[in-house]
Amino acid sequence: MATIGNAQLPVPDGGDAPLGPAALANLAGAVDPHLTQHVTNRAQRDSLYSGAPRHTMVSADDGSLWLKTSGTANTWATVYEPVAAWRAVTPASGYQGSEFAPLCRIVGGQVHLQGRLQRVDGGVFPTGGVKIGSVPADCRPVKYGSWAGGSGLTGDPMVGVGRLEVLGAASSTSTGTIGDILWYSQDGSGVPWVDLSGSYWLD
């Protein structure tokens, strides 16, 4: 059977017997891997196409587009995904959102946070490390996340920046568990609020 095009699609030629159904089946089987497959969401993609050949392209209802990069593993490259909605960060006991609600979202393998936390009783944050909140389960890093976090200017000396961490499976502390947000500062007498603005990688 002859082949045509860059995809080398099989087509009957003059020497082939008149086997129409078989020829059409061969053609359909050759064309299928080159089509964009359609799913509802990522979970359905993984369910239906985990064993698909390399280069399979799948599109979801929300416009997400993925390209399979392995012929054996369920590994995909993201061509496009819409930006996720902001979701709530859970304040720790004794803490609450401040003038800007504490929120997070995942964008391209990174977790981004925004908003502020303050103490319910209006007091200042303890120095030396304290749990102030936690992120959703899918925002927990494999190792840990760490970034510089802004804070209220108070105390003597004034504390403008401290350290924020999100604990992952590779981090261990008596202050919190996986997914907890910790605030560290050893300067001054404590701060009235902490700004969560920052980001970290999930892997």
Describe this structure as you would to a colleague.
This protein is mainly β and 203 residues long. 10% of the residues lie in helices and 37% in strands. The chain is rod-shaped. The model has no long low-confidence stretch (mean pLDDT 87).
Keywords, please?
mainly beta; 203 residues; 2 helices; 18 strands; 4-stranded mixed beta sheet
In total, the number of strands is: 18
Overall geometry: rod-shaped
Distance between the termini: 48 Å
| Portion of residues within helices | under 10%
Assembly of the depicted chains: single chain
Cross-sheet strand order for the largest sheet = 8-13-16-15-14
Query: Rg to the nearest angstrom?
Result: 26 Å
Runs in which pLDDT lies below 50 for 5 or more consecutive residues are none
Major sheet characteristics: 5 strands, antiparallel
**Class by helix and strand content?**
mainly beta
H/E topology pattern:
EEHEHEEEEEEEEEEEEEEE
Q: Report the average pLDDT across residues.
A: 87
| Count of DSSP-assigned helices | 2
What fraction of the residues are assigned to beta strands by DSSP? 35-45%
How would you summarize what this structure contains?
This protein is mainly beta. It has helices at residues 20-31, 42-49, and strands at residues 2-4, 9-11, 36-39, 57-60, 65-68, 76-80, 87-88, 90-91, 95-97, 103-107, 110-114, 116-119, 130-134, 144-150, 161-167, 180-184, 193-195, 198-201.
What are the SSEs and their pairings?
Blueprint: E1 2-4, E2 9-11, H1 20-31, E3 36-39, H2 42-49, E4 57-60, E5 65-68, E6 76-80, E7 87-88, E8 90-91, E9 95-97, E10 103-107, E11 110-114, E12 116-119, E13 130-134, E14 144-150, E15 161-167, E16 180-184, E17 193-195, E18 198-201
Parallel strand pairs: 3-4
Antiparallel strand pairs: 1-2, 4-5, 5-6, 7-10, 8-13, 9-12, 10-11, 11-18, 12-17, 13-16, 14-15, 15-16
